[in-house]
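Weekly structure sync, notes
Attendees: PL (lead), two postdocs, one rotation student
Agenda item 3: pending single-chain targets
PL asked that the sequence for the first pending target be pasted directly into the notes so everyone works from the same version. It is reproduced below exactly as submitted, 172 residues in total.
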Amino acid sequence: MTSDVSLTRTPRGWAVTSPAGTEDAADLVEGLSLADLVAEELGLLVEPDRTARRSARGPGSGSGSVEDAVDPAAARVAELERTVAQLEHALAARVSTERAIGVLAERNAISARAAFESLRRDARSQGRPVAQLAREVLDSLSSEPAPSVDEPLPGPRERVSGDPVAAADGRS
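Predicted structure, written out during the meeting:
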């Protein structure tokens, strides 16, 4: 049995494979987050492979000539460049997803894996990408007023309502 965690493209999306089994992911961001959480649970160090990104960029972007269109090497370079652009976009979306997982874990006093599963379940039930729901979680941070020093922090899934200063003073 191998101790590797891998993320592979499937006809239906992505799959995270580990010694614990295979779990499907709807999109790349979801798959990346899940793979990290599984690797962390297994105690594996996750290091990005930068050589694949460098080699995918190749020496240049091509001249766009007719020869490039039929040249298999040029076609492969163009395909790899598209893949790199998609991965860069996914990594940017992943930052928001990871932050949202942390917010949900803290807010609900649950593990990062449980927060991810909750976020993924909600995204799937609404037919939306995990990254979109994660962005909404982060956006909700700026709309929630901060509790005052004298006011107890809200419990899991409990929101602070109204003016926190007025609530602490008993004016609300």
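Discussion points:
- The mean pLDDT is 75.
- DSSP finds seven helices and three strands in the chain.
Action: rotation student to compare against the earlier draft before next sync.
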